[in-house]
Amino acid sequence: MQRTANSKQTPTGRPQAQPTTNTQQARAPPQMIQNMARVTDPKHVPKEIRDQFLKKIHFCSQPYDFNDDTKNVKEKQERSQYLQELFDLLKEPNFVANLVVPHLDLIIEMIEKNIFRPLPILKKTATNGEIGMEDDDQLIDPAWTHLQPVYEYFLQLIVNEQPDVKSLKIFITHSFIQEFLELFDSEEPREREYLKNILHRLYAKLVPRRKMIRKAINDCFYTLIHETYKFNGAAELLDILASIISGFAVPLREEHVIFFKTVIIPLHKVQTCQFYHEQLLRCSMLFLSKDPTLATFLVEGLLRYWPFANSAKEVMFLNELLEVLEVCEISKLEPLIPKLFKRLIKCIAGPHLQVADRAMCFFENDYFLTILKSYKPFTFPLLVPVIAQIADTHWHKVLQESLNALKTILKEIDYQAFDKALNNKDPKYLYIIQDAKNQKKDRQKIEEKWKNLTKQALQKNPNFKEPIVPYSDTHIVGEHNGLNNGNITII
Amino acid sequence: MSENPFEVLKEDMENEEVYLKVNAMHRVKVVATLLGSDKIKSQLIPYFETLLKKEDDEVLFALAEELGNIAQIIPNQSICLLTLLEQLAGFDETVVREQAVRSITIVCGFLADNEIANTIVPMIIRLASNDSNFTCRVSAVSLMCPLYARAGNQKEKIRQKFTELCSEETPMVRRAVATKIGEIAQFMDKIHVIQDLIPVLKQLCQDEQDQVRLLCMESLMNIAKILNSGENKTNILPLIIQSAEDKSWRVRLALSKIFADLAEAVGKEIADSSLIQIFSNLLKDTECDVRVIAVKSLARFIKFVSPEKLNLIVPLLQLLSKDPFSQVKQNACEVIGQIATLLPKEYSQSKLQQQLIDLMADDNQDVRRNAAKSAGQFAAAIGPEALNQFVPFLKKCMDDPKWRVRKETMQTIIQLALTVKNPDVFNKQLESVFVMFLKDRAAEVRSMGLSQLPALIAAYKQEWAVGNFLSKCVETLSKDVGSLYRINALYAIQQISFAVDGPVAQDRLWPIVQKCLKDTVPNIRFVSIRVAKSLSKKIDNQQTLNQIKQAINELIDDPDRDVKFYAQEALQN
Q1: Tens-digit pLDDT profile for residues B247-302
Q2: ipTM (interface predicted TM)
Q3: B31–A453: do the CB atoms touch at under 8 Å?
Q4: pLDDT tens across B21-33, in order?
Q5: Cα-flanking dihedrals φ and ψ of residue B132, to 5°?
Q6: Whole-angstrom Cα distance, residue B95 to residue A217?
Q7: Which class does domain B467-572 fall in?
Q8: Is the Cβ–Cβ distance between B207 and B245 less than 8 Å?
Q9: Contacts of A231 in chain B (CB under 8 A)
Q10: Which one of A66, A226, A426 makes the best mutation probe of the B interface by having the most chain B beta carbons within 10 Å?
């Protein structure tokens, strides 16, 4: 990988002087390694080799403007060469033990100077940002080819067994981790991949630093949830977390349970959730495998943060909900049953076909049907009338068929309860499919009451200002915009 | 009829739809007014307690807001709302807790000083010391600002807690502190600002997170405002210097953004002696976004330094006008225009005029547009003698392929014409450029010229309007094949007609319009009808009026529907 990066970097048309310096440098590493091999007493590295090594480290610590390919061409090439050499030398155990480890401070400093930088805003070159078009073009940081060798070096350094925990620990401080985590916001996916691998290995290796790393990751997520709502590296961090979580001992410590409740669950509500939902789901499920009692909290969270006017996210939530429900203990679900079934019935009766379809899938799940049966007194009066009605009227044929199938299933479960529920005219359960006119009438009744009350308030206090309500029938987006099933009013 | 208000609220809150619940929540003040303070305490507040656990964030957000409204209904007993609000201030959802903080501030407005000391201050300290929930601590920081002034003998306690939170490990809290430190300083005695806040501000300005450092910038400015020159020099200036060299360009950008205000805040003396130098570095920053913003601030910054120091900026402007990044140049144009009003004429002419002229021929259309705009300002600042040099280039700009550039140029020309108000200069230099609007390809440019015509006629009188200008219109009407140009010229004639007296309209304008009434293009015919109609309002001579009437009458049977319509309309009234 390193080699290809280098060869790419040498386009034709460079000044004539370049090739000569190049070949000189190219010969250096084997020579250095050979020199090293000749050293009989490994404790005493000859001064010249050490000096050469330190010179290279120092050279690589110099900052250059990597965004402009025309500046410092020669130095940049030299730098790449040196990095390559340093990298090759990591393969020599003798060398690592006697040069790298004693000079770890300089090496880490070199790495810090290279990678700890304010992240650039990558500008899209193409301006044809047609709305709704999928933008598959990856943004590429021009500095990446120069950063990649440093990352590769860092990764190999950590993987290498010789720098032990004790010597590495000193450098991996709180502020190091903090800065390192900030890099995860990079828009360059390859950089994030390296960051992920490095952090993962650091976590594995530096046992005494684990708690600190976890806390820093926590803060990162808090910032995402509460302040920025966007963080490019969320998926990568969750990947790392997934393996961290797998390592948690059972029963879970309180600290981890708090993490689940204050980070994992609220992460669902963030607008950019779809970018990391896959990883989030994995983390959630891992937590639940360690402690199934957490499942009810997650169900509660999902129902609480249910997406609004975002059907793609709704489908993701439905997928997750079904998976989580399977872990729940049925008896613990009781307080959530009304909210759960109301939400499902809303999805089924809603205007979005995919959402409705996903919601219907719940009824193919045996465990879910057991839940449904266990809370028959509530679920039947809610489900039966709605399902029965839209099974007759649904506009989509396939869905109508499955609705009919569901009707049969419900009938088979308990014929008597089904009949009873079908004749139930309690508006509390029927509101979803209620006729728009009736709905309006009901609404008007209570609006009338409010009007009267407002009048009274005005009588009582002449200075009273009428309250302004934020939503009216004509300006609510999404599912509240009057597009209820069977009642399509264009506003 | 006599509904129980509390029951109505509860009924409405049973609703399934969140938006209806939010609506219901916003009607709480109706209920509160009717219930009165006793029942608010005994019924409403316990009911709200139950909502906290089960309701959606949207509803709680509304609740937090309405609690502030209830406070206004029962000002003397609003203290009872604080338990609820304190809980909301510790909530997870950002908008809910921010709203809760606002409502707490409202409640505090109704409280006596001893209540603040006995209830509010302990509450703030409680929130600030909540170790398990950073949200509480963030809310505490927001509460300290408005309430510090009223904390009486507990100010010290709050100060201490505030500075304590500055060294907090959780970055969210540090960010909150960095945002608020400038605000709370406004309420503190100066001695405490210097003794307590400055040290922590220094610390925050060196925070490991660039977000924190970035947020400090605004606070830095606010604190600079309350310190005197000497204090600023010892306390604020080092921080500005340090931030201008920050390794994160985001921080440098934030600093560039506020640099003009900062200069205003620290005063001319420091601005002259130190800020110019620091700002120069920002203007030369390696990151182009920083330069863009810095140049933008520069336009205001130059007002806050002594004019004699401006010559330090000029070389930079020369550099910036050649920047590889077009947005920098674009903003630099503006500064060149501004700075010309402050510099001695000869100096700006010798140092900046050529730059501006070069910018008028830039590759980027936005740069050219801004340059054309600034050229007006520049030329106006220097006086009529500069026009000689600019007009040829403005004329060139009127040939620009981009209409936006031409529109801006047209505006510049008009502005110049209106500021110099000298017929000689106008006739010699500007008029020839101005009349180009008659033949411009873009409707925007033509209508721009047209809209400003009345002002120009007012400035340069009838003689010009029916003299040179009218002949240009006639030229367009007779030579130009494009009907849109002719329509435009006709409207120009209509504008002239508003400004001239009857005989002129009759002798000079009517014959032209008369010809146009017979044009082959229907649109021109009906525009002519309208122009003829406005001419007839000026003309007293019965014979001519009859002529007009007759000419329009002939069009009443026109094959074109629209012409017919306008002819009929014209004859009716």
Answers
A1: 888 899 999 999 999 999 888 888 888 888 899 999 988 888 899 999 999 988 98
A2: 0.74
A3: yes
A4: 888 898 888 888 8
A5: -85, -20
A6: 23
A7: mainly alpha
A8: no
A9: none
A10: A226
